[in-house]
């Protein structure tokens, strides 16, 4: 697929995905939803990739649904538009790669929902984030009503969702929505620095640890711990775990093979 609304740049082991409709602050139309899905499937099936960094062209990460586009949709068309956008977030969250949102500017509505579906969020000091949908008479339809409270707690999420007000990067950091706030223009660099720390670790261990967190979050705690126990038991049987443990004993850096 040739992309017009996004850019996918693969530099293994890192993939860079950039939302690219800067004239409309990268707002999301159906074409972008389809291209985003194709890119996520492409990244997810590429064994040479271990990190996905998502950012936006211009002054926004993504300003949410394309409001002008939405005004022309029938109810059935809206159903397809919103449902396919929502399913993209599930796909993003379940990727084997670690995803980092490099939030360069506004992340509003669906734009914040993309960042919420990423594993890690790094914000520019100039970023503004929020879920303004109630101001338009709708609600965050791509998982925001579920992921936001899981990340910042129900009270703070409901304040953001029902007031629709934006918060700045420092406030996002204070409430745990941002992992890190960095100077303007340095979000991708900061994401790459974090990526290097992740890439230094056992590749299978990172995949299985993310899987344990993602699957476990929706299970009762005892079942979630049992699930994580199965993942570590699997990891213990791998060559990488033997190498990682032995390298510590030998006081040397491990050499990972992903086996
Ligand atoms: N959908 C469609 N177009 C959008 C958009 C969106 N979500 N967000 C911004 N744009 C367009 C604007 O219409 C404008 O286009 P124009 O130059 O043809 O008029 C352009 O992007 C620049 O936006 P503008 O509003 O002029 O920039 P600003 O700096 O004054 O304000 C925002 C920035 C993000 C505060 C403002 O654009 C905004 O509130 N956008 C809507 C966010 C939203 O409600 N998202 C959830 C949708 S469900």
Notes on the protein architecture:
- This protein is α/β, with parallel strands linked by helices and 259 residues long.
- It folds into 2 domains: 194 residues, 2-enoyl-CoA Hydratase, Chain A, domain 1 (Alpha-Beta Complex); 48 residues, Lyase 2-enoyl-coa Hydratase, Chain  A, domain 2.
- It is 49% helix and 17% strand.
- The strands form 2 sheets. It has a 6-stranded mixed sheet with strand order 1-2-3-5-7-10, with helices on both faces. A 4-stranded mixed sheet has the order 4-6-8-9.
- Helix 1 runs parallel beside helix 3, helix 5 crosses helix 6 and helix 9 packs antiparallel against helix 10.
- The longest helix is centred in the first third of the chain and has 19 residues.
- It is globular.
- The two termini are 32 Å apart.
Characteristics of this structure?
single chain; globular; 259 residues; 2-enoyl-CoA Hydratase, Chain A, domain 1; 2 domains; alpha/beta; 11 helices; Lyase 2-enoyl-coa Hydratase, Chain  A, domain 2; four-stranded mixed β-sheet; binds coenzyme A
Beta content comes to 15-25%
The CATH superfamily of the largest domain bears the name 2-enoyl-CoA Hydratase, Chain A, domain 1
Range of helix content: 40-55%
**Approximate shape:** globular
């Amino acid at each position: 697929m040739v992309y017009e609304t996004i850019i996918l740049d693969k530099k293994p082991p890192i993939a860079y995905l950039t939302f690219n409709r800067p004239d409309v602050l990268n707002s999301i139309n159906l074409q972008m939803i389809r291209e985003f899905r194709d890119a996520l499937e492409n990244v997810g099936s590429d064994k040479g990739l271990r990190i996905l960094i998502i950012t936006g062209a211009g002054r926004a990460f993504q300003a949410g649904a394309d409001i002008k586009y939405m005004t022309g949709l029938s109810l059935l068309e809206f159903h397809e538009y919103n449902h396919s956008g929502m399913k993209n977030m599930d796909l993003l969250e379940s990727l084997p790669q670690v995803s980092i949102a490099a939030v360069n500017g506004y992340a509003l509505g669906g734009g914040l929902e993309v960042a919420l579906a990423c594993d890690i969020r790094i914000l520019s000091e100039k970023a503004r984030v929020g879920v303004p949908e109630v101001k338009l008479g709708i609600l965050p339809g791509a998982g925001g009503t579920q992921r936001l409270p899981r990340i910042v707690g129900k009270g703070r999420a409901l304040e953001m969702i029902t007031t629709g007000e934006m918060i700045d990067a420092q406030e996002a950091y204070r409430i745990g929505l941002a992992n890190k706030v960095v100077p303007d223009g340095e979000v991708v660099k900061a994401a790459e620095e974090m990526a290097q720390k992740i890439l230094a670790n056992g590749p299978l261990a990172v995949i299985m640890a993310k899987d344990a967190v993602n699957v476990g979050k929706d299970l009762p705690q005892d079942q979630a711990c049992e699930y994580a126990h199965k993942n570590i038991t699997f990891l213990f049987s791998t060559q990488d775990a033997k190498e990682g443990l032995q390298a510590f004993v030998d006081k040397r850096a491990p050499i990972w093979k992903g086996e």
